[in-house]
Design goal:
By secondary structure, this protein is mainly alpha-helical. It contains 11 helices and 6 strands.
């Protein structure tokens, strides 16, 4: 039988560029969620030492599943109606909204106003207010009394807004080194932590999809495929009774 050589992993990341030439695409290394609650706490504590507002933002991500771009712009007014705490509220996801709007650019079926309205309605996600969120809300009030945004950065260049994502990920890269983590830590790690925590708690994948505001289960499954510990444990528990 003819021997076959093993396939190089890079083959999966190649694209045709003509004349039989293959171009290897650079593989983007995915961020991973903290491995457990303790590691999450250690990360948040380390971030807090660098910037409390950023630590609060990342904690809210792990409680809500929001992307950093949406979470960082949460306002105190989102959580209150007529001076009373609400049980839930809706927000429009920025990334999804602009993506849907772009897809409808050449569609003459709708007016510009209708396109914006449709993109907004299809990009809506509901945030359910929990006790942990309320505790975090109180901490934000103490840190930023009288502020409009929950996570306003005290750096004067921020002009009352939250830290931008590039600065946030710069701090996370430092924390990754400080804690000697063996995976890439990004702002998306905390959105993934939300999804993984729900799955480990027995929540149905369809419900997780809706809570994340994903349009398909494929996107949700990509988040949940980061749970390598369970897969490793499954292999470690494999024993043959010889």
């Amino acid at each position: 039988m003819k021997k076959s050589r093993r396939i190089n992993l890079n083959v999966a990341n190649q694209s045709d560029v003509g004349e039989g030439v293959l171009k290897v695409r650079k593989v983007k290394k995915p961020s991973l969620p903290p491995k457990n609650d303790k590691e999450l706490k250690d990360i948040l504590d380390a971030v807090y030492d660098k910037n409390p507002a950023l630590a609060y933002t990342l904690q809210m991500q792990s409680l809500s599943g929001l992307r950093y771009s949406d979470c960082s712009q949460l306002m105190f007014s989102d959580f209150y109606r007529n001076g009373q705490l609400v049980e839930q509220f809706d927000i429009i996801q920025q990334k999804t909204y602009y993506s849907r709007l772009k897809k409808m650019e050449s569609n003459d079926k709708y007016t510009e106003q209708e396109k914006h309205r449709l993109a907004a309605s299809r990009s809506k996600v509901t945030i359910y207010v929990t006790e942990e969120m309320i505790e975090l809300l109180e901490a934000c009030k103490l840190y930023n009394p009288g502020g409009e945004y929950l996570f306003a950065n005290k750096n004067r260049k921020s002009q009352g807004f939250a830290m931008d994502i590039r600065s946030a990920e710069y701090h996370l890269s430092k924390v990754e080194i400080d804690l000697m983590l063996n995976y890439q830590l990004k702002t998306h790690s905390f959105r993934k932590m939300f999804a993984v925590k729900l799955l480990r708690s027995g929540v149905d994948v369809v419900k997780i999809r809706d809570l994340l505001g994903h349009s398909s289960l494929d996107s949700t499954n990509k988040y949940l495929s980061t749970i390598s510990d369970e897969l490793k444990q499954a292999v470690e528990n494999l024993k043959y009774d010889f």
